[in-house]
Amino acid sequence: MKKIFFLFLIVGFSLEVFSKIQIKKDTLSQKKFQELVDSFYVNKHDTLKAAKYAKAIHNKAVIENDTMNMLEGKFFLADILNDKNIYLNFCDSLINITKKHPSKNFPSAIYYHKSIFYFHEGINSKALEELTLSKQTLRKNDSLKHLLFIQLAMIKSSVGEVEKALTLYKKAYLFAKQKKYLNHEDFSTLPLNIASAYKKLNKIDSAFFYNNKAVSLYEKINDSLSLGYSFYILGSIENRRKNYNESIASYKKSIPYIISDENYRILIRVYAKIGVQYNFLKDKKNALKYHLKADSLFNVREIPSKYLEDTYKYLINQYKKNKNLKKQLLYINKLLEIKDFKLNEKNKINKTLTEEYDIPNLVSEKKQVIEKLEKEVQESRRNKIIYISLLVLSFTLIVYQINKKRTLKKRFIALVNEKEPASKEEAQPTNKHELSNETINTIINGLESFEKNADFLNSKINLQLLADRLDTNTSYLSKIINQHKKNSFSNYINNLRVEYTIEKLKNNALWRKYTIKAIAKEVGFKSAESFSNAFYKLTGIKPSYFIKELEKSKKN
Asked: What is residue 89's three-state secondary structure?
């Protein structure tokens, strides 16, 4: 009986514990991701509690099918348990799954996050390998494409290809600015990246400009951590200007932010840089202090940095002066280790850059050059055809112009030599319109008087006015002009005015100095255009040409 009671007691206790755990799990899953992340950082000093929140982030993400937060949960767990394989193995498992059914984001985004992980670990050759895989699996995703630009720029900058890095940063910055992504954490570092690149290129004014842009951005979006990194960049700019005191002050101002971000790679760099600057300022005590800080951090975190070269050179020299051979040998070995790592990393990165980026870029450039050459050949052929066509057309136009000039010249000569006006003809008695001979003769005599007195120069003359003057009607007058002058009334008047003009121009030098508009008004036309058209209609040449040729003939 006691055994049965004891068994029930155990079962009951177990059920109570299980229910409490289950309630706690449910409570955590109901929290927002940001709340869980904040709780992780608050409890980071307690490995078990922090691990619990890291797992909660991952589990909540699994339930909600949120791949990026799954990754974040595993990253936090790997960080707190100091086992990077937890994160990397999970990334690989996700890659294997998403490779079978690739999407806009995956597996490219996972390769990208692995690249970031290796970069922060200081293993840039591995970071470049993962970045290359991300690029190869990238689909149409402009945001991710420009994030790859940023990551590639950082790797290029680490091996001295700063100009190329700056070009990539600028492309990403322009994209982020157009899309209004600069306040997003993935793109917000760009002003600092550009400032750092300009600093390395010794373009200090540009470096200051972009660092100030960064400060304005981070104050606007209330990003205190990134603002702390702007102090770090300012320190490096002042260092380049050899303002060592200002540089040290800015570097020290950035340290709390870098520590809170747990960015130990940058922290090692800051300690080493401060040590170097104190040495320039002849402050041996602080120089030693900060170089030892850099070394101590390397011992704990095992993050290799090229900036440790300055630290170990200083420490070797320091212990050499103190004749401490053991310490001297220790730091010689550490310096060799850093140099070896740096060389291997640089060789691996350069090899990958050459094989995966430079050579493909050259092949692409070669293809573009070939396409341009082919296009130039096609354009050359097209240009030849166009040239020949233009040549033929030009020749045709020249021949046409020559013939036209000859024709105009002939017309001019005929016009100058003509003794009687072209439009005047002998009146032929006719009764075609059933008019009496007396009426016909009266009208014809009236017209002769009209022509002799040059009454046609009156700009107001019309068919009705002339009929009234000749004591006839418009119908009779129109019929007589049509039959005897072989013209309509308007053409009859225009021809008389043109013939009058020709005679005046031939015999009066002053008229040849008049403008076409003045001549037109003088002979009764309402405009220069109507005069020129009437002149050309009767003679086949323009009045301006006639005057010009007359002037030439008079001079000769």
From this structure: helix
Distance between CA atoms of 263 and 214, rounded to whole angstroms?
A: 19
Q: Give residue 14's pLDDT.
A: 44
Rounded CA separation 51/63 (Å): 18
User: What angle, rounded to 10 degrees, do the helices at 108-120 and 84-100 form?
Assistant: 160
Could you tell me where the beta strands, DSSP code E, fall in 281-346? none
- Residue 330, judged by CB atoms within 10 A of its CB (0-12, 13-18, 19+), counts as middle
- By C-alpha distance, which of 387, 302, 296, 306 is closest to 339? 306
* 479 exposure class (CB count in 10 Å sphere: 0-12, 13-18, 19+): middle
Using the predicted structure, report yes or no on whether residue 2 has a pLDDT greater than 50.
no
- Say how many residues make up the chain: 556
CA atoms within 13 A of residue 217's CA, in its CB half-sphere: 24
H or E element, residue 294: helix 284-301
Helices (H) and strands (E) in the chain, counts: 25, 0
| Per-residue model confidence as pLDDT tens digits over 93-113 | 889 888 888 887 888 999 999
Longest alpha-carbon distance in the chain = 163
**What long-range pairs does 183-188 form, CB within 8 A, spacing at least 24?**
183/217, 183/220, 183/221, 186/143, 186/147, 187/146, 187/147, 187/150, 188/217, 188/218, 188/221, 188/223, 188/226
pTM of the model: 0.58
Given a cut of 60, whether residue 121 has pLDDT beyond it is yes
Tell me what pLDDT residue 387 has: 81
Phi, psi of 461 (to 5 degrees): -65, 135
**Which tokens is 79 given?**
């960080």
Give the span between the Cα atoms of 531 and 61, in whole angstroms. Answer: 91
**pLDDT score, position 554:** 77
Long-range contacts formed by 4-9: CB under 8 A, 24+ apart: none
Pick left, alpha or beta for residue 488 (phi over 0 → left; psi -120 to 50 → alpha; otherwise beta).
beta
Place of tokens 């755990």: 21
Given a contact cutoff of 8 angstroms between Cβ atoms, the answer to whether 270 and 258 are in contact is yes
Q: Residue 108: which of 143, 73, 70 has the closest Cα?
A: 143
DSSP codes of every residue in 227-242: HHHHHHHHHHHHHHTT
